[in-house]
Design brief:
CATH architecture: Alpha-Beta Complex
Oligomer: single chain
Distance between the termini: 22 Å
Bound molecules: D-malate
Order of helices and strands: EHEHEEHEHEHEHHHHHEE
Strand content: 15-25%
Structural class: alpha/beta
Radius of gyration: 16 Å
Number of helices: 10
Largest sheet: 5 strands, mixed
Length: 229
């Protein structure tokens, strides 16, 4: 487990990686796919997102800066921005402040999944069946460790055999154990949760706390897009 993507990220060219940005990018991507989108491409930069849309106007363009939807985009970074009526059968390009940048950093990994509390069990199972465990990368917030991502890492590590756990994995697990029956309360203590609640996004925090709401893991396909598995 890496607590923020800037932490000594090792060479991942032979490692199965799970990237976590619970509030909100990876929770939102899992929801976009659960609501029937064909695929989601997380991109780091706004210009790249616009360039992709120019090439293919049918794309749905989504994301945030300062937690707010971007001018000229179709949707923001809230899971509630992507109901079935908006995304069914569509491809979605998403750019966010931290999460999608962390995903770009893992481009060389042979296998990448996106994890969050809403699909923790499915991701743990997919990772175990694809590889011998591997690495969990918490995106963090603006370069800092974020409680919500370590919490979600704990929900995935829960499914690992204890002997496979590093101390960082055990720290994540201990945090999850502390809050497992009160995940919404736990999430709300996180700095980034408090920041987005202050912007009126409490519903997104409540949604992100719904452990194992979704049955599918989100994994990268051969084209580099993320799909349900
Ligand atoms: C990010 O990638 O920084 C987050 O998903 C921010 C957010 O809450 O929208």
């Amino acid at each position: 487990v890496i607590f923020r993507w800037q932490d000594d990220l090792p060479d991942v060219s032979h490692t199965a990686v799970v990237v976590i940005d619970t509030l909100r990018a990876t929770t939102t991507i899992a929801t976009i796919l659960a609501n029937g989108a064909q695929a989601v491409l997380p991109v780091g930069g706004v210009e790249k997102a616009f360039a992709l849309k120019e090439q293919d106007p049918r794309l749905v363009l989504g994301g945030e800066r300062n937690n707010r939807p971007l001018p000229g985009f179709d949707a923001g970074n809230s899971p509630y921005d992507y109901p079935r009526a908006v995304v069914e059968g569509r491809r979605v390009v998403l750019t966010t402040t931290n999460g999608t940048q962390a995903v770009e950093r893992t481009a060389h990994a042979p296998w990448v999944a996106l994890g969050s509390l809403v699909n923790a069990r499915a991701v743990a199972q997919a990772q175990q069946s694809a590889h011998d465990l591997g690495l969990i990368v918490c995106a963090g917030t603006e370069g800092q460790v974020s409680l919500e991502d370590v919490l979600a890492a704990g929900a995935i590590v829960l499914h690992w055999p204890q002997e496979a756990c590093t101390d960082r994995a055990l720290i994540a697990r201990a945090l999850f154990d502390k809050w497992r029956d009160h995940l919404y309360e736990g999430l709300k203590t996180a700095q980034h949760a408090r920041a987005i609640i202050a912007q009126g996004l409490d519903a997104d925090v409540e949604y992100a706390a719904r452990l194992d709401l979704l049955p599918h893991a989100v994994v990268r396909n051969k084209e580099g897009w993320f799909v349900n598995q």
